[in-house]
Design goal:
With 85 residues, this protein is α+β, with helices and mostly antiparallel strands. It is 36% helix and 33% strand. The protein has 4 helices and 5 strands, in the order βαααββββα. β4 and β5 form a beta hairpin.
Length: 85
Amino acid sequence: MVYSLIISTHFYKFLKKIETKQAIQILEFLPKIADDPYKAGKALTSNKKGTWSSRFGDYRVLYIIEDKEQKVYVTDLERRDKVYR
């Protein structure tokens, strides 16, 4: 089951600030999140419950899965040390 990706403007703004090589890797991975968001990342707990995370070196892509709508909302891209706050 393929999900539609809805990507936030914050994600794109941060993507422009990182190295081109890592930005390309992240963009190439987004279709894998759309194909199977449950295998592409892990569920977060605590104050981020309901959010999923995929890891790319020092960066994390956060997203929310909406099964009924078959959509994945990519909400954030941030360095690991800042994203979980």
